Amino acid sequence: MKRILIVKVTSLGDIVQALPVVADIKRAFPGVQVDWAADEAFAELLHWSMGVDRVLCAPLRRFKKARRWRDLKAIWASIAELRAYRYDYIVDIHGVYKSAIIAFLARSSRRIGYQSQDLGERGAAFAYTGRFGPRPQGNAWHGMRISAGEALGYQVDGPPVYNLRLPAPVTQPFAARSAPVAAFFHATSKDDKKWPLTHWVAVGRELSERGFHVVLPWGSAGEQAAAERIAAQVPGASVLPPMSVTEVAQMIDNCTLVVGTDTGFVHLAHALQKRTVMIFVATSPSHCGVEAPNRSTSIGDGRSVPSVSAALEAIEYVQASKPVPAMQDQSAA
């Protein structure tokens, strides 16, 4: 086994949670090269991975929105890069048309994807020469590890290993602050996933009383307005300035605690081994949540709004003791 291509195109949280597949593969096949094909919007994250050898990307999402000629040319150019090597296996752990097309265009006689009932778009099946077993019940992130192991013939063993190394920040976030920092990721891509602002205020006030400095990142004018409403009612809270993806990641890495809804940056906080509480309102915590002993936990049932007391209990849990050390993957270093 010399070279493997993983296809997982979007989105931030999904790609973060798929990264342990790389460490699994490199443990099973020492010396193997692992490339990854994704949307250009998420290439930055993949470059932080110490296990991914080559990041292949194209502005698929941007072209879909703007239909600009320069983006189409970039997509065509990316096809040549995609076909620069022949792969022993292509493993599509996304399962939609765009990932299947990438798998089909890449050079390999072994292209593995999900069974039809497990695909996000059933037409994607055209690209595959082989299929994973039925998608395992339960946590989707562990399921991706199981599926990749089935495709390549190894057993998944041990906790997930993310192996992320962020670039050093130009200026150290919160360098002048002595108080521990808690980041609130209150914004979501869908309104039905939001936790009430009154709940954020209540938790923020409690953390402020415990000596935390609460910070609120945002990504749009609406999110900024919500952050300002929360900050106005939480003593000492700060609304952060506009930040790039890398800057948000560096900010997370300098936090003591991260609390947020089911969003990509909260998954990233978990991967960076921060003390993390993820709040589920309309999605399934058993399917998409984060859990690590004494460090990360998910609350909610995916059908109702978790209470403030449930969030505070979860914060107590992740703050209660020294976290269990994560397994380090020496093969990916």
From TrEMBL:
Regions that span the bilayer: none
Subcellular localization(s) per the UniProt record: Cell inner membrane
Enzyme class: transferase
Catalytic activity, EC: 2.4.99.23
InterPro entries: Glyco_trans_9 (IPR002201), LipoPS_heptosylTferase-I (IPR011908), LPS_LOS_Heptosyltrfase (IPR051199)
GO molecular function, one term: ADP-heptose-lipopolysaccharide heptosyltransferase activity
Catalysed reactions, semicolon-separated: an alpha-Kdo-(2->4)-alpha-Kdo-(2->6)-lipid A + ADP-L-glycero-beta-D-manno-heptose = an L-alpha-D-Hep-(1->5)-[alpha-Kdo-(2->4)]-alpha-Kdo-(2->6)-lipid A + ADP + H(+)
PANTHER family hit by this protein: LIPOPOLYSACCHARIDE HEPTOSYLTRANSFERASE 1, TETRAACYLDISACCHARIDE 4'-KINASE-RELATED
The protein, known as: Lipopolysaccharide heptosyltransferase 1
Protein species of origin: Paraburkholderia monticola
